[in-house]
Amino acid sequence: MEKKNMLVLFGSPRPHGATARLLQTFLQKIDPEAVRVTTFDAYRGNYHPCTACGYCQTREACVFHDLDEFDRELRAADYLVIAAPVYHMSFPAPCKAVMDRWQRYFEARFAMGIRPPIEKPKTAAFLTVYGSSNPEGAHMMTRQLELAFTVMNTKLEHVVEWPHTDQTGTAEIPPEVMEKAHQAALAMMEKT
Ligand SMILES: Cc1cc2nc3c(=O)[nH]c(=O)nc-3n(C[C@H](O)[C@H](O)[C@H](O)COP(=O)(O)O)c2cc1C
After folding, report:
1. 170 lines ligand 1 (CB under 6 A)
2. In this structure, is the dihedral angle defined by the CA atoms of residues 133, 137, 138 and 143, taken in order, positive or negative?
3. Sorting pLDDT into bands at 50, 70 and 90, what band is 41?
4. CB burial string 7-36: b at 16+ within 10 A, e below
5. Mean pLDDT score of the chain, rounded to an integer?
6. What number is the average pLDDT over the span 159-181?
């Protein structure tokens, strides 16, 4: 059986923080025999932000090439996973920079009439952590992803939240969050 492809965008600056722990927990249930996982680290990649130059209005490409590999992996992906903490009710800036670069898919769809701009359909999961107990930021981020995914042939099917990390610390993932992450991964894998 051919392996499925999972593309992960990791959006925390802390390699051992809560986001990393939540992602690791999710990935525990992804069978490496069945799924090839490719991870892009938004902070380490230091990707260029979108400059609204208009290049992608007439070409299926970006004027910056630092995300070409991400684009190739995205087109090949069956599953897309976004793992990011809440920063000021939104995505951390380096993660948002990658998302703004997805503007090329809006332009492909609406400026060039390519439908769908990305051929292979995908299911997505959003894994997020936040210091407070206020879920508003996570909800806002979910909405942002849903909007972007409308032109990426991608359906957001799973959202896993780990709240109030600033009170409880990030050493131990709460059992109910662990369970939700495991369930999301298993449900995602069931979907072919
Ligand atoms: C710049 C910054 C902004 C933050 N903004 C929020 C916020 O709006 N709401 C919230 O609940 N927590 C906020 N936090 C707390 C983080 O979401 C929390 O510490 C989380 O565990 C960080 O993820 P990490 O452990 O993967 O680094 C913020 C933290 C930082 C550093």
Report:
1. yes
2. positive
3. very high
4. bbbbbbbeeeebbbbbbebbbeebeeeebb
5. 96
6. 92
Is 115 touching ligand 1 by the criterion CB < 6 Å?
no
Give per-residue burial for 102-135: e unless 16+ CB within 10 Å, then b: bbbbbbbbeeeeeeebbeeebbbbbbbbbbeeee
Does the CB atom of residue 116 touch ligand 1 within 6 A? Answer: no
Regarding the beta carbon of 123 and ligand 1, being less than 6 Å apart is answered no
Cβ of 135 less than 6 Å from ligand 1: no
The CATH architecture that domain 4-190 belongs to is: 3-Layer(aba) Sandwich (3.40)
Domain spans of the chain, in order of start? 4-190
Test site for ligand 1: of 161, 165, 172, 177, most ligand atoms within 8 A of the Cβ: 165
Q: Is the pLDDT of residue 192 over 70?
A: no
Cα 129 to ligand 1 centroid, rounded to whole Å: 7
Q: 33 C-alpha vs ligand 1 centroid, how far in Å?
A: 34
pLDDT per position as a tens digit, 66-116: 999 999 999 999 999 999 999 999 999 999 999 999 999 999 999 999 999
Residue 1 has pLDDT above 90, yes or no: no
